Amino acid sequence: MDEDTANPDPALDRPGLETEIARDLRALTAISEQIGHVFARSNSLRPNDFRALMHVATADAEGTPLTAGRLSKLMGVSAPAVTYLVERMIESGHLERVPDATDRRRVHLGYTDHGMSVAAGFFGPLSARTRAALADLPDADLAAAHRVFVGITAALRDFYGELPGEAAD
Q1: 71, 82 in Cβ contact below 8 A?
Q2: How far is CA 5 from the centre of its chain?
């Protein structure tokens, strides 16, 4: 791989590239939060309801479904507060309790068909725009971007676990 392929902007050195990635992540986080607030408002959800939905979706995608107790820890709210939140989300049709297949005493949180439909209806156009935005990028670039996101996510989770009062499970 030649120098121009490895770094498309030769004016940026490694620290410069890392700074640009950090800026990009802050911008991504900011606009994602704005979109999340619009989704929440348009579906009569509170900001913490949307945060909970994001935690459930992330856990499902990673193959580690959440219990209410784990959601409480992730969100930094009390068990009674998360119970109230989960009850609201069940009543609104977004979430359901799903018994664990191996331990029937354990209950996970999962999206309902209605919840998935609502999310798909809102975020479908974003998915189409994202695919269009990435269409001209080679697969190797997408694979590299994925590795970057995996590394940054791991670093963020490690940092979070080291924060006072936020011990990792």
Answers
A1: yes
A2: 30
Task: Report phi then psi at 111, rounded to 5.
Answer: -70, 145
- The 10 Å Cβ neighbour count of residue 71 is 23
Q: How far apart are CA 95 and CA 87, in angstroms?
A: 9
Three-state secondary-structure class, residue 39: helix
What's the whole-model pTM score?
0.82
**For 21-60, how does the pLDDT look when each residue is reduced to its tens digit (9 = 90+)?**
999 999 999 999 999 999 999 999 998 999 999 999 999 9
Question: How far does Cα 101 stand from its chain's mean position?
Answer: 25
Q: Is 2 left (phi over 0), alpha (psi -120 to 50) or beta?
A: beta
Name the token pair of 135: 């269409």
Q: How many Cβ atoms are within 10 Å of 110's Cβ, its own excluded?
A: 17
C-alpha distance from residue 164 to each of 55, 156, 161, 167 (Å): 21, 14, 8, 7
CB 66 within 8 A of CB 57: no
CA angle at 138 for the pair 135 and 140, rounded to the nearest 5°: 135
CA pair distance 91, 95, nearest whole angstrom: 8
The DSSP output letter for 104 is: T
Closest by CA position to 55, among listed 26, 107, 95, 100: 95
Residue 105's pLDDT is 87
